[in-house]
Specification:
Elements (H helix, E strand, L loop, with lengths): L1 H10 L15 E2 L12 E8 L2 E12 L3 E10 L6 E8 L13 E4 L5 E2 L9 E2 L6 E9 L2 E12 L2 E7 L8 E8 L14 E9 L30
Parallel strand pairs: 1-8
Antiparallel strand pairs: 2-3, 2-13, 3-4, 4-5, 5-6, 6-7, 9-10, 10-11, 11-12, 12-13
Length: 231
């Protein structure tokens, strides 16, 4: 379904803005979500080739067993702003199984339970063995003292800069440099991608407040580039 591939790209375009084998890359997490102040949010500017969008991560709810994050995105292939609600385990780096199904909302439309084939976002702590060093990094939100990690995956090289004071996740910057596919024309090469912190704050409230309805593909007509949801 063309819509689902575009939906996943728009809402799960982190951290590398490219996914191996159809699953979203794990999001770096270097803070203890159980100790993060509710309402903490961070906004990011993301780009991949000619496509750009913004995403905002906010911690909007918590109980003894879970934390609820909302990721809001604007721009990219989806015509309306998108909000994705994720109910995560108390420590999502050790237990990636979601507590409840993900919920998605387009603009002011009624929220819906995300399709079952939408892969859950995973979170992981950077591998200490991949630490490059300590660096000052300048991003739209300012200059931050960071720990710089570098790793290789199926898509190429991923550089991650983190700072534990940047809530709710600790992420400052991500840069993905895909491997060059030998023999393929330049137009077929995957472009480099970046994700940079553009703002932080407190006081975020849940954007999804209504009871979600079952997913209805018919509601998706025209959301992605004016094309039908599927053909």
């Amino acid at each position: 379904m063309r819509f689902l591939s575009s939906l996943m790209l728009a809402t799960l375009l982190v951290p590398s803005l490219a996914r191996a084998q159809g699953a979203p890359a794990a999001m770096p997490l270097v803070v203890d979500l159980k100790k993060v102040e509710l309402g903490s949010w961070a906004e990011y500017a993301m780009s991949m080739g000619s496509m750009s969008l913004t995403s905002r991560w906010a911690l909007v709810a918590r109980d003894a067993k879970s934390n609820t994050l909302e990721m809001s995105t604007r721009g990219g292939p989806v015509a309306k702003p998108v909000v994705l609600r994720m109910v995560l385990a108390a420590d999502p780096t050790s237990d990636s199984k979601p507590g409840k199904p993900m919920v998605i909302q387009f603009g002011d439309d009624a929220p819906m339970i995300a399709p079952a084939e939408t892969p859950a976002q995973k979170f992981q702590r950077p591998d200490p063995k991949s630490l490059i060093g300590k660096e000052d990094v300048k991003v739209p939100a300012g200059t931050f003292q960071t720990s710089h990690y570098r790793d290789k995956n199926a898509m190429g090289t991923v550089d991650v800069w983190v700072n534990e004071t940047v809530l709710p996740l600790g992420l400052v910057k991500v840069r993905t440099t895909p491997d060059v596919e030998k023999g393929a024309p330049s137009a077929m090469q995957i472009p480099a991608a970046t994700m940079e912190l553009s703002g932080v704050g407190k006081g975020a409230k849940a954007a999804i407040t209504k009871k979600p309805k079952p997913f209805d593909p018919a509601k998706m007509n025209g959301l992605v580039g004016g094309d039908p949801a599927s053909k």
